[in-house]
Design brief:
Keywords: Metal-binding. It is built from 2 helices and 11 strands. With about 170 residues, it is mainly beta. Strand 7 and strand 8 form a beta hairpin. About 40% of the residues are buried.
Length: about 170
């Protein structure tokens, strides 16, 4: 099972479309963790499940998505409602409450993944305005044979950012 996860594209359309087209045939689901600043039906988001971020004014996106894909239960939110710039504790409470295996979020613009209490957390960073490392990134989550892997990719060419890759068993 593979999931493409991106966030914080802040109005970019061509770049979002390029990323989705680059990976569309190899993933089972696509999540956008908010702050797309696009309309619900915008063609750049075709095929993506999208949540509402703090910069998505007037957008008719949900605040969260709960979705099971091939036995993996995803919880997706932007993160601003859980104060993720200060702590991930409220997010972790919600992820555990809904029984998530994977929790995806954005808002901080910092690419990271980690495991806490059996839940894998993924922030794909920002494809437009990254913080921390200056690389514009998105993520791919892959699960097979009782092993999960998160790879981060450069927005412009899809190259893997090796130092951010993580494997969880």
């Amino acid at each position: 099972m593979k999931a493409l996860i991106l966030s914080d594209s802040h109005g970019w359309t061509n770049e979002v479309k390029e990323i989705l087209d680059r990976h569309r045939t190899e993933v089972d689901i696509i999540f956008h963790c908010g702050d797309s600043e696009l309309e619900l039906e915008h063609s750049a988001l075709a095929g993506a499940r999208v949540v509402k971020g703090n910069c998505d004014f007037g957008a008719d996106f949900p605040d969260e998505i709960q979705e099971e894909v091939e036995g993996i239960f995803f919880y997706v939110t932007h993160g601003h409602l859980y104060n993720v710039k200060m702590t991930t504790d409220p997010l972790s409470y919600r992820a555990e409450e809904v029984g998530a295996n994977v929790a995806c979020f954005g808002h901080t613009h910092i690419a990271t993944s980690f495991e806490h209490n059996g839940v894998i957390y993924i922030n794909p960073g920002s494809i437009k305005l990254p913080l921390g490392r200056r690389t514009r990134t998105y993520a791919i989550f892959e699960s097979a044979n009782d092993e999960s892997k998160v790879t981060f990719h450069q927005q412009d060419d899809g190259e893997i950012v090796e130092e951010l890759t993580a494997v969880y068993k």
